[in-house]
Amino acid sequence: MSTPTTLPKEFQDQQESIRIMGFWVFLATDVALFGCLFSVYAVFRSRVALGPTPHQIFSLGPVLLETLILLTSSFTISLSLFAARRDRLKPALYCLILTLLLGASFVTLEIREFSHDVMAGHTWHQSAFLSAFFTLVGTHGSHVTFGVVWAIMLSMQLALRGLTVINRRKLYTFALYWHFLDIVWIFLFSIVYLTGIA
Amino acid sequence: MQMERDISHVPTGRGDEVEIHGLAPHLHMTRFPTQQIIGYLVSLLLTLFAFALVAYHWLPLNLLVIVVVCLAFVQGAIQLGIYMHLREGRGTLWHLPVLGLAGFVGLGIVGFSIWIMLFKSGVS
After folding, report:
1. pLDDT at A11 over 70
2. B84 or A34: which carries more pLDDT confidence?
3. Helices and strands (H, E) in chain B, number of each type
4. Do A24 and B99 count as a contact with CB atoms less than 8 A apart?
5. ipTM over cut 0.85
6. Calpha distance A95→A77 (Å, rounded)
7. Shortest CA gap A59–chain B (Å)
8. A94-98, A150-154, B64-68, B99-103: which range is least confident on average?
9. Which of A2, A5, A6 is the best mutation test for B, with the most CBs of B within 10 A?
C-alpha cells in the first residue's frame, strides 16, 4: 500500500478531524446530562409515594428485546463504517438504513411501554420515582429519535453525493453518537431495569 | 490480510504528530470485520449473562447489583474500544482530555450524589 499517510479516511482532512474532535466534546456534555439524570434516579428510586415500585412496573421481556435491538443496531452501524472505509457505498448505505430501522423499532417499543404505563395511570405525576424514571428513559429515547431523523438525512446525503470527505466525517460522527447511545442504554438496562427488578 | 502500522513518527507536517509512543494512534484495517463481530457477540453474551443473573436469582441482592454494574462498565469499555475507534485517527491524544473530562464530571456527579445520600440522618 502506498498511501502517503495511514490515517483513517475520516481523519485525513485536518478540518474534518477537528470537527470529529468537536463531536467528542458534545458527547462529553451529554455524559454530564445523563450523569445528572442517573443521579436523580438513584436518589429518587425508592420514593414511590402511592405509585408502583420499580418491581411492579418493569417487565423485563420487552426491555430485553429493546436491548438486543439496540446492540444489533450498534453492530450494523459499525459495519456501515467498515464498508465506508473500504469505499463500498452500497453496503455502507444499506447498513445505515438497517440501523435506522432498528432504531425506529426501538423507539416504537419504548413508546408502547410508556403508553401502557400511562394507560394504567402511572404517569410521571404519580411519584418522584416515576418522574425520575420517565425523564431519564425519555431523554435517552428522544436522543434515539433524533438519531433516527439524523440517519434518514445522512442516508439521503450518502445516496445523493456518495462517500465524499464531508459525508465520511458525518457517518463517523453519527456512528460515535449511536455507540454512545448504546452505552447509555446498557447502563439504563443494568442500573434501572435489572437492579430494579432484582 | 492485515495491516497495522505505527504512525507515531510519521511527520504530517501539520504539527499534530503524536509523540508518546504508547498513545500513538493505531490503524487496524482488515478485510473482514472480525473485531466488530467479536464485539457484538461479547456484548450479546454479557447482556444475556446479566439478564440471567437477575432472572434466575443466582446471587444475593447486594452482590448482584455490584456484578451487574461492573458488567455494564465492561460493556461500555468494549463499545468505546472496538466500536468508537478510540485508538485510531489522530486519535488517542486528541480524545483523552475530553474523555477524562466526561468521566470526571459524570462519575463526580453520580458518585457524590450517591455518597451524600448515604448520610441518611442528615436532613430528615
Report:
1. yes
2. A34
3. 3, 2
4. yes
5. no
6. 6
7. 11
8. B99-103
9. A6
Cell numbers at A36, concatenated: 445528572
pLDDT in tens, B39-51: 899 999 999 999 8
Residues in chain A with CB shorter than 8 Å from the CB of B16 are 14
H/E segment holding residue B29: strand B26-30
Place of cell 452505552: A183
Among A25, A42, A75, whose Cβ lies nearest the Cβ of B114?
A42
- What are the structural domain ranges in chain B? 2-90
Q: What is the pLDDT of residues B8-44, one digit of tens each?
A: 455 555 555 555 555 555 566 677 888 888 889 999 9
User: Do you know the residue count of chain B?
Assistant: 124
Q: Please state which CATH class domain A59-197 belongs to.
A: mainly alpha
Per-domain boundaries in chain A: 59-197
From residue A76, alpha-carbon distances to A21, A93, A137, A156, B48 in Å are 23, 11, 23, 18, 19
Whether residues B50 and A183 touch (CB distance < 8 A) is answered with no
Judge residue B91's burial from the number of C-beta atoms within 10 Å of its C-beta, 0-12 exposed, 13-18 middle, 19 or more buried.
buried
Rounded Cα distance between A180 and A31, Å, is: 9
Q: Give dist(CA A23, CA A29) in Å, integer.
A: 10
Residue B120 pLDDT exceeds 70: no
